Amino acid sequence: MNSNRKLTPVVIQVATVIMFALVSAAIPEYTWIFFILYFVVLTVIMMRTAGKGMRKVAEVKGSPLFKEENAASIMASDAALFKEIREQFKLAFLPMVSLVVVIFIYPVYWQYLDPLVRDALHSITDNAFITRFVEFLAFYAFLIAVMSLPRMLITRRSQQKKQLYIPRTFSVYRDGIYLEGRMIEYSKDACYKVDSKRRFVEIHSPKVPFVIRLYTLEVSKLADRLKEVGLYECRV
User: Which of 12, 39, 171, 203 might form a disulfide with 178, Cβ 3.0–4.6 angstroms?
Assistant: First the structure.
């Protein structure tokens, strides 16, 4: 299951490169329109994915199994949090850095690298469409590789691969966790990690695009309540 999750982003990237190359080679005059539509659709999907498993609720039925109203003050005493937040800011600025990289790489690639690709293709095929397709295929593959490098370097150094979501208050119910007006439902593959020294419990789930960190002085009690509703402790 884990290998499939790791393989999925690679398959998506390969399919995206092939799709971009086909459009650029077949209908170059519509390439920018295609890019805009693609990124609009991608943004919508990402926004829906970010909200998956979360729903707004006006009122929660039943009594909470655990409630913490001072998570913000406990969080403020976590000296190691600043370093984690700093790493998240670096990741947040990556799209801006990527844009600068694209602006710089585009003329450099087509002036210096593309002639090498074109010469190699001419010795293999005389088909103009295939030549254009492979040229764009090489360009987009090179572009994605260069743009992925900064993210790989940052995430490799960072212990936290996903963005942190730290509520100021929270309540644990049998149906989910109530976080500042939203209910996050439990999933079968969700697990929790305990850090008694820093006084928090983290909830990890592949279906949620962030890590939920719950600060509390009663770490053991919170972990017991999460185990009671069906969550298991994450394997290191």
Answer: 171
